Structure prediction request, 583 residues.
Amino acid sequence: MGNCRDCIILFAVLFVLATLISYPSIYLNDEFISANQLNHLVEGTSPLHTYEPYGYSAYAESHHNVLCYTLALPVVSLPAYYLFSFFGDSFRLAVLLLWSALLLAVPVMVEVWYPQYARWRGIPWTRAAIISWGVLFVLNMALYRPFWFVRGVQPGDLQVYPEVAAIVFTGGVAFALFGVVAYLIFREIFESERWGLFGLVAVVTSSSYLFWAGNAKDHMLVALFFATALYLFTLYLSRDDPLWLFASFIAVGWTAWARPELGPALAAGFFLFALAVSVRQGWRRTGTASLAVLGVPFGALPLFVNNLGLSGNPLVLPWVAGYSAQVYAGISAGTETLQATVVKQFAPPAGDLLAGLYGTFVNPVYARAAGIFQVSPLSLFVLLLLFAVGYTIYTRRTTCIPRRDARILAFFAMAALLVMATYLRSLPWMPASPGIVPDMRYLSPAYLPMLVPGVYALKYAGFGAAEARESLRTLFWLVLADLPLIYVVLQALSGRGEAGQVSFMMYLTYLFLACAAALYLAVVLGKVRPSALARAVPVLMLCTLAWELVVDFRFATLCWDGYHFWVPAVQYVWYIQYWIFPL
Prediction:
């Protein structure tokens, strides 16, 4: 029962957070595709062709007027769209009331379910939170203005973007579900609720997932399906039950529906890892593990139906069918199937791979983009873990890692490498592409599997549950006191340039990362106590949150079609900071 309560509270908190800083607008022109597909599904027109009502002619022509994504994101956004259609032009009010209800529910649930955490130094903070909620609710109602939903009423429909709103809302729900799954992953691996919470905070504050929760791209949906597959496979490794393995392969099939090029690599990698684990348990267990891979086609059924409906062939992807019909007047038999697409995806990269890796992980060529280690500095601790393990082997002739943990760490390392391998041919040009913003977004699924061994590196160095609690407490005060200060300094130094602020945060992050890495090595060598890391790790998390504020709040006006922030109070806070620091 307690586990369900944890998940309910975490879902509420994460959804409130995602909705707080998100605005239903199109950030990248690729989002025209999903918005148009959702519109065509609702209107009953072709979800494969025609860029209406979103997009512009040059972009449509560059894509041969083909809506070249699968229907995963539009289909899962249909419930939100129909929910909004029920409220019509008052759908923003419905979202605001839901957000307010969940915000109120959090302190109430803490008071009822966890009274031991409802006091801070004897002060009932939950009651103060409820009073503050009342003030905020009145303020939001006073500032509320509707988002128009019904087309054909407003002149030219210039402020009517219901499909974008539905997709962004769905992304917020996906983020909240993803966060719950991430918590369950860390809790299962570290066998502790406190470590589960610390791991969740590490994922939210050391990745771009919070950013992708607030726009109309499919990255959050892909992350949710991928995280589900990782969690189910982790349960298989921990509990040795083949049913979890079968369920994991089903989730791999879901991932393939949302991101077809990623699915085959995951299916092959998970299959080989399962065989390697089961081969020592006898031929029966090996055979069972082999049969579990049949979960992939079960999970990928939506993809096959998607392909069949759009191209007439379950193995021909939508963009292949659309491009072939527009450019070649037909699909080339045997050369444009799903198998051919997979083979092409894993072709050797053309270009300077080393330069591409440096740009991808450290310093992208395109100034507005951030590298993986800037967005997720804790991921670098994977490399520090290798040093720590090597040092332990040298001094003690053993790794001091339990066999179960070693398997899990190897699995997550493999999962991160599978994501990298999927896009290996794109790495030479990815860091220089203006479309790969604000981070290396196609590689964003790798944040979670990299952070698992990254957090484990802390535990390996003696960072215990007490240090995890101290880190969370330190991060809380840093967010309250230092995050606004960093934001103001950034606006004062480079208020009108996103590239300048991103670059400033890059150097600041790497400075603190170098200090934290040196401190970690000192802890491993026995020169410093592990408790020192409890103050260094939150600073790294703070740097990522500062970057998040820059790309997701300060420069919200860089978006295309769409509305403003969901929460009216946040919208007017943005107006105030815009008045103080105009663009």
About this structure: The chain has a mean pLDDT of 92. The chain has 26 helices and no strands.
